[in-house]
Amino acid sequence: MSNLPLRLRHLPLAARLSLSFLIVVVLGGYLVSGLHMSEHHQNRDGREGLSMTDIEGAYHGVNSEAPLLLALNADHPGELDGQEPLEDWAKKALLQWLEGDADKIVPNWDNLDLGDEVPADLLDASCVGCHSRTADAELRAEPPLEYLDDIRAVAFSREISPSDIKLLIASTHAHSLGLATITLLLVGLIFATRFGPRLKGGLALAASGGLLFDLAAWWLARESASFVFLIVLGGLAHAGAMVLIGLLVLCELWCSDPKAKPQAS
After folding, report:
1. SS3 for 158?
2. Spans of all domains in the chain
3. From CA 70, how far away is CA 75, in angstroms rounded?
4. Which of 81, 147, 183, 215 has its CA 20 to 30 A from that of 121?
5. pTM metric for this prediction
């Protein structure tokens, strides 16, 4: 009788097919979960795409300052080589416009009653030369500031509140039970493969530890924004390890072992 431990490649065809189908479903689930996170959290800061500000806002809350306001406070464009800073009166007028009543930002953009301090004219004179879709390639800068829709994207500061505590409880309940179970099953399967113990142990630790740190950081981040990075790192470690484990298990199920000795006829 053989003393070799169970290897997945030795399972009957029906068992290998069943495991393969389920692992493909799990891998698809991790792909979709990444897309779901992006769609669920992106644009919380009012800007296209998923950013750390979006994630921080979801788990901790954050005040997202308008990009145009940030640029002005950083003395843009004066900090660039060869560029003249805005005149003090023009910078002061733009700051008053952006820091004033949010409901008046759009109406006052081209409000002629402001005389020499019309924001549209000040931006046109000082910024649109570079922040334009038609600017020379050497000078062109993002974002464009030509039209009102461009201004809407960069002129508003936003206060992002974290997710409701009830939603966090429900999400933690679902993820801890569901993901822990899937992780337990895949970690068990990886130890029934041909691969070396260091690789298998490392992936098992990354998958389980990443999940623990990710879920724990959801709660810790409510008190300190520094834990938001742990959410990202833990989530990437868990998801990356799970995908690799799934691929290695599929390899074990269907790839021949070059080290296996041929059976005697």
Report:
1. strand
2. 10-60+162-254, 66-156
3. 9
4. 81
5. 0.68
